[in-house]
User: Fold these one by one.
Assistant:
Number 1:
Amino acid sequence: MTPVQPVRGTQSLLGEDADRLSAVVAAFDRVRRLYGFRRVEVPTIEQTQVFARSIGETTDVVSKEMYSFEDRGGESITLRPEFTAGICRAYLSEGWQQFAPLKLATHGSAFRYERPQKGRFREFHQLDAEIIGAAEPQADVELLSLGYQLLTELGIADGVTLELNTLGDPDTREAWRTSLVDYFEGHKANLSEDSRARLQRNPLRILDSKDPKDRDICAGAPSVDEHLTDEASDFFGAVTAGIDAAGVPWKRNARLVRGLDYYRHTAFEFVTDRLGAQGTLIAGGRYDGLVEALGGPHTPAVGWAAGIERLAMMIDAPQRDRPSVVIVPLGQRAEAEAGRVLAGLRREGVAADMGYRGSMKKRLSRANDAGAAYALIIGDDELDRGEAQLKDLTTGEQRSVSLDLIADAIAR
RNA sequence: GCGAUCGUAGCUCAGCUGGUUAGAGCAUCGGUUUGUGGUACCGAGGGUCGGGGGUUCAAGUCCCCUCGAUCGCCCCA
């Protein structure tokens, strides 16, 4: 019988690869506390309309790339493809509005039915940070600082660039869009086939086309700056002044866009060239229109999400967990005593382990493989004297230690 | 959805233009050492060569289909 295969685009990780993911999450958890972002839990599944309404019913994203199914009650359910929409739903349905402005953080699995490639999976993991109910540019600044400090904490800030742009307010956005369509219509003949299709569907996206011909045309395209209202311009100025003051390096990318209509003002990506085509590590922006799209009151908000797998690929290998001591009992009498010693050490906060079976040779070999600092050998002879042999696995030195003083001996 | 490359042991791979019982290293298990790991030496287990079909006297090797992996395109909430 052939073994059961994993679902395409899912990962099962042991050892260093798993440690990398948890190191990223641990760093995020440290940093988000420093910034006062409260941990939230939201469901993995939501009613499909939570995502469909926020994204727009007709897009490819909704029709082809979500894991949606009908449950036994006939309800259309979707595995979350991201966190933002679910958090906004909770903000409305759980009455979190009373705590606004709210700084929230979470992390976990998300699901997208896409073709797997480097740094892209069908079940993947995200860090997520949101500020809901704040229209002030300081919220954007705080979120950008949080992202930068996370990258610094992970030791990868040097290889990452913050690309920043503004999409302006709705008036700005509409005016810019119109002039972009006019401009690209004029160059339609020279655009790539993909971009000609985008002209109908999502003209802003032409700006980040990878096609060299498109890029030349984009170089002469109207900039959002020409359409910024005074208010939008002031807002962007406040954001950039704020991150400059906070010491966050950034680069203007006037071609950075967001496809969905609910985005306003700030749009940004922390990118790297070290991960091939999937170079975006953290992506976010201001989404003042989203809560309204979910049926709530007008609510300004800004946030970002980061791909945990991508961050994990960037960092140095984390130190693996290793026991301080592995107990090696010899014989049945020793094994009973060893169980007491093991429990005692663990209660004292010493990372201690003991194999379930095996010869002394085997057990020592396992202790060595586990990276233990010490092996504690307990045999009948030692037991009679209330002692054990403590062996330093690095130096090979071994000495007798009283069973009551093992934790002290290891600490030294 | 589209394109390219690739699937041989748990892992990394070798296997020439199709030709007897498919190999190595690492890992695992056992032994040299019944109370001493990391080193060394000896030995063992483990593969219907991703799956299915076809060509051929003969297929791991050639052809088709399929599944999967990798990288890219599309998409990127």
Number 2:
Amino acid sequence: MTSVSEKASLARPFAPALEKLRGAGLRPTRQRLALAKLLFDGPDRHVTAEMLHGEALRARVQVSLATVYNTLHQFTDVGLLREIVVDAERSYFDTNVGTHHHLFDENSRALHDIPECDVRLDTMPGLPAGMEVSRVDVIVRMRKA
Amino acid sequence: MTSVSEKASLARPFAPALEKLRGAGLRPTRQRLALAKLLFDGPDRHVTAEMLHGEALRARVQVSLATVYNTLHQFTDVGLLREIVVDAERSYFDTNVGTHHHLFDENSRALHDIPECDVRLDTMPGLPAGMEVSRVDVIVRMRKA
DNA sequence: GTGTTTGCAAAGTGTTTGCAATTTA
DNA sequence: TAAATTGCAAACACTTTGCAAACAC
């Protein structure tokens, strides 16, 4: 049994996460709330399923890796996350869903946003009829010199 | 036993492929020659291991899928191919190793070069010390409107 | 209560590897 | 003949799925 005040005090740190889930029409389960908190509290970030799972466990949140995968995809489907394909070995998810580009460290495999890189695509070549651009990804790859 | 004339007539269509392998310091084995011919005869192309393996079999060239994978990576290592990360599900290899960008069809999963798309990266943000840009990938993703 | 979500373990996918047999130089 | 290459099958890493139990509303 959970008292009203206990619930309120417990809920407060989860309020932003709760909003996000509510707004997206996803049931605020314990797991989803905890993952949303990890993802969206604080600055933008880039995670892999494995990373987020590890963080959750360290934060004493019981979640299975399968649920982390499912949750990341659900969040992506409702536009809370953006999936970035930079590395054939694993999938990255970005909490920044606005238009921006990426800087990938090939040594550490860390992914960063490029904040103010002006990319101009001149002469976008004619797409085949009935096709539209769904997105343009720019990935600057760096490594130890 | 193979006669000299038979060898010569057989070798002619493989001459460009042979050059490539020689130049790269790779032994021209039957498999590598056949794969090089499929890859480099004709216009630039984008292949996955599965695709190239299928083609080889259809052309009555006996190659195992493992060898196709190994060969694609060897070719990539010596600069004959470039690996493109566009799809989390599979790896693409591009015979065009010059600077250029890509157009990816999310429906058919076909990959194309963008021939003359001028991409200007202004204000390349300062890289961390000791790091250099190894490459910039630009991927325009399109899908059915 | 009813439909949704979870966790597990099993299955799946694309890819890599160990090693004996084969091929190249 | 010595060294490199191949093919197979097993191993791999990451990801998805089937289904019963747990949960949200």
